[in-house]
Amino acid sequence: MCWHVIRERCAVSFHYYPDDCSDLSQAENEMGRFLKQYSLEDKTQAGKIMSAVGKALSSSAQQRLTLLSPLDRVHQEVKTFRQQAISDTTNTVKIMEQGRTEYRGALLWMKNVSEELDPDTYKQFGEVSVRSSTGNSYIDILNNSVLHTVQLFTNLINPVVEALKYVSSLGYDMLTFCIIEALATDQSKLEDLQLSQGLQALSLFTGLLCRKYQFDLAGLLQYVLNQLKVGKSYDLAILREILHRMSGIDISEEMTEEQLESMSGGELLLQEGGYYAQIRNTRRNAGRLKDALVEHNLIMPFIFLMAQQRDAIIFLDDPERHCKLAGRLYDQCQGTLVQFITFLSLQLTRDEMQTQCLNIDRMMGEFHVPADTAFCFHRNLFEQKVARLFESKEQAETMKSGEKSKSFSKTIFSAASLHVCNEIAAAIRPLYPARVWDELGIVFFITFWSLQSSDLVVPESAYQRQIQQLKEQIQQIDTPASGWNSTKKKREIERLENLIERLTNEQAEREEHVTRVRAWLMTERDNWFQTRLATKTDTITQFLQLCIYPRVCFTATDAIYAAQFMHVLHQLKTARFSTLICLDRIFNDITLPTSMCTENEAHRYGRFLCAVLELVMRWHASEEVFNQECGQYPGFVTVFRKTYQGLDANTKPDQLQYENYRHVVHKWHYRITKAIVACLESGNYVQIRNALIVLTRILPQYPKITQFGSAVERRVNKLKDEEKDRRPDLK
C-alpha cells in the first residue's frame, strides 16, 4: 500500500513539475536581473556580491529551463506507453474471447456430429477437432499473457479487471485455472526475504477479480488449502486478498487509537468507526465466499492448517531460513488466520456455527490447535450459548414471578456464564497437566480466554465521537449550500437520525452487558485462586505464561484486553492475586519478550506495555488517586501475616505506601531503559528492530525521566550512524 501511495505522489509531482519549474525559472531570472541592475549603482563590496548572485540566479534559471524539453518528451513517452499497454491488453482480451467463442462452437459441432458419425463427415470432424485443440492452446497462451502483464505492471491490474467484463462464465473458469497454474509453476515467490512483487500483484488481481465477477471460488480456495497441507504458506497471500476484497476485512497494525477504541464496541460501531467501514458494501460478495467455504467443507480445514502452519514456520521449516523471512511468513499466517476467523464470526449464523464448528476439546486435543486460536474461534459461540441460556432462564423466571429487575438479571447471567464455563472446563481439563490447574484455576483460565474487550469496557468516547460526526453531517446536509434536493435531503437526514438512535441504543445495551459481566466476575473472584498448593509467584507465572503473553501477541485488540483484564482483577480485589508482583514480572526484564517477537507482535507487545504504563503512571501522578484505588487493595499487599493463636485477629497485612510505590515505578523505568539499551547494542537485527518498534509504541508513557530518555537517545543516534549503509530498513 505504501508503494502505491509513493507512486501516485511521484506521478502528481512529475505532472506539475514542468509548470513549477518554468515559474521558478522566471522568478529566478527576474531576481537575477534585479540584483544585477542595482549592483551597477552600488560600488561597495555589497554591490559586487549582488552582481555575482544575480549572475548565478540567471544561469540557474537558464539551466532549469533546459530541463523542460526532455521532461516533456519523457512525459509523452510514458503516456504513450500506458495507452499502448492498455490497448494491447484490451485487444488481447477481445481476441481471447473470440477464440473462446470459436472453440465452444467447434465443441458443440463435434458433439452433434459425433452422435451420428459417418464416412462423409469423418474428414471434416478431424479438421474441426484439430482446430478445437489449437484454439484451446491459443486461449491458454492469451490467458497467460494477461497474467504476465498484471504481474509486471501493477498499475494495469484495475484496467485489466475492467476489461474482463466481456468474458463469459467459461472464460472465468479457464482464467482461474491459469491463475492456479501460474501459482503452481512459479518458482520465484520470494525476493529479498519477502514475497515477490509478482506474487503480490497476482494476489491483488485475483482478489479484485473475485470481488467484481461471479464464478466458482472452490478451485482457488482448494489450491491454497493443498499448499498448506504440504507446508507451504506463501500462497496465503491469495486467501488474504480474497478475504479483504470480498468482505472488506483487513488486519493491520497501523490502526489509530480511535479505531482501536471502536473495536471494543458493538457491531454497529465497528462498521461506523472506520476500521470495518467497507463491510457495509460487501454483503453480497461476502455471502458468496461464505457459501463456497460452507458448501465444500473448507472452514475447519483452513483453521486447522493455518494454526498448525503458524507453528511449523518456526519449528519445522528450513533451519537455515533467515529470521526476517520466518517472521514475515509467521505474521502473514497469523494475520490471515485472524482475518479468516473475523470473517466467519461476522458471516456465519448461530446454526451454521454449531454445524461447522468442532468442539473445543477436539480442536485442541485431536488437531493440536493452540488455545489462543481455539478460543478466538469459539468465543462468539460461547457468548451465544450464554445469551441463549440467559434469555430462557430470564423468561421462565419472569413468567413465574411476574417481575423483572436488574439485580435478578445479574444473578441469572452469572449462573448462565458459570454453567457454560463448567462445561468447557470439563472438556479441556485433561488437555493440560494437573499441576497447571493447581497453580491457576481452570474457571479463571476459561474466563480470561472467553471474554474480550467489549465485555469489560464500553467505549463511551467512541460512541459520542461517532454520534457527533453524524450530527455534523446532518447540519451540513441541512444547509441551503449543500445542493441536495428536498426529497433526497429528507431521506438522508432520516437515515442519519436512525443511525444515531441505533448507536445510542447499542451503547445502552453494551453498558447493561458490561454491568452483568462485572457482576459475574465479582461473584467468582474469590473462587479463582483457592488452591493452597501454589504461591502467589507461581500463580502469576502461570497467568503470564498461559494467559497474558499468548493473548498479547495474538491481535492488537487482545493486547489492550490483556491490560484491561489485569486492571479489572485489581479493581475486583481478587483474592490471592498480587497486582504488584504481576507488574514487577512484566517490567522487570522486557529483553526476552522483545527479542522473541515478530515485527507485528512487537507492535502488539508495545501497545500492551503502553496500556499498562498508562495505568501505572496514573497511580504515580497523584497520591490521592493511589490511596483511593490501591491503598486498601489486596493487589498491593507486600507482606501477608497469618493469624496465630494469641495474636490480634485485627492485624492487617502490610500495604505498599505511595512513596515506596514511586520508588518501585522508578525501578521499572530503569529496567525498561536497561532492556532497550541492551537490545539496541546487541547488533542483532531482530532485537534492534523490535526495540525501536516497542519504543515507538510506548512513547506516550515513556520516557518520563530525562536521564533515561537521554541514554536511549544517545544509543539511537549512534545506531543511526552505524546502520546508515549496512541495513537501510533499520535506518
TrEMBL record:
Domain of life of the source: Eukaryota
GO cellular component, one term: cytoplasm
Name this polypeptide is given: THO complex subunit 2
The entry's keywords: Coiled coil
UniProt keyword annotation of Coiled coil present: yes
Gene Ontology molecular function, alphabetical: mRNA binding; protein domain specific binding
Natural source organism: Schistosoma bovis
Alphabetical list of SUPFAM superfamilies matching this protein: BAR/IMD domain-like (SSF103657)
